[in-house]
Every structure is written in C-alpha cells, then in structure tokens.
Amino acid sequence: MPVKKQKETQKVKKVKAQLLQERVIADDTNESKEIYDQSRFGERVEDKFQYALVEALYLVEKGRMLVYDSKKKRITKEDFIKKAQMVEPTFWVRYAVYKDMRNRGYIVKTALKFGADFRVYERGIKPGEDHAKWILYPVHEGGAMTWYEFAAKNRVAHSTRKRLLLGIVDEENDVTYYEVAWKRP
What we know:
Elements lengths: L1 H8 L5 E6 L2 E5 L2 H10 L3 E3 L2 E5 H9 L3 E4 L8 H11 L3 H13 L3 E5 L4 E6 L12 E7 L6 H13 L3 E7 L5 E6 L5
Parallel strand pairs: 1-5, 8-9
Antiparallel strand pairs: 1-2, 2-4, 3-4, 6-7, 7-8, 9-10
Helix pairs in contact: 3-4, 3-5
C-alpha cells in the first residue's frame, strides 16, 4: 500500500504547449521528449515538438498536456475542441478514430504527405523502426463517399504499399473498422 500512496502524491509533469491554428507547438523539454520516446506523440521540428490537433486533445484528455493560446491563457478542453472544429470541420470524427486506435495500443500519425488522414503502425512498432501498416480514413456513418473517392483512397494505400483501413464512426462515437484489400481473380 505505501507504493500506491507514493504514486498518488507524485504529479505527472505535463507538456506545456501553444495552439497555433492547425498545430500545437511545445518546447523541447523533458516532458515532451518523454512522451515522444514512449509513444511517438508529436514530431520534432528543429528545437520544438509539433502536435496534430488530435494528438494534442488526446494528451489533454490523458492529463499529459496543457494548451495555451497566444496570450499565454490556458485553453479548456471544450474551447480547444471548438477551435479545432473551426480549423477542421471533420475534427470530431477524426478524433474519435484517433482516440480509439491509440486506446487499442497503435501509434497513429498524420499522413498528409500520402494524401490520407492517418498512417497506423502495428502494435509495438514505432515510426522509424518500420513502415506503417495501414492508411486510415475516418468516415462518419451518415456520410457519403463516391466510388471515385473510394477508388482514390484504395489507390493511395496500394501505391504506398499499405493496407486501406476505413474507420466508420457512429452516433455514439463507436468506431467499426473495415480493411480493404486488392484481390486478383
């Protein structure tokens, strides 16, 4: 029991970051290095760490990050979500998929250079150790996708040698995944 009391009194040091439109930036501190080394949160950009909006919200919810505005005023979780939705209209759907995959133990990174929402690494694999296994597209269950859009997503996955994963988010924010594969008869 003394170990539990000791853990309760130890406070987890939080990354202090600033919201800048579609990114969240933090200084290169012990805290930001620690969460990067553990689970690859953020990306090193020169002497800073840069976080996608979904990463930052996840870290805020986990009690690992505090986010401030340009005037050094702390932003609440609710205000952060409002600001993120102004920048990214599909933010909540993307976040539901991101959070679900992270909670399942996967490392999820943005995949803008591939023309996708996310790239997902197999459990136990960190970016830089091996390539991502999937290209992941979040979709709301009430949304529509044309066959052309679907084919384009499948082509992106195929051309990058990754599997296509669709994360379908329902009204309760539960996510169902569908993996799409090329088949030759």
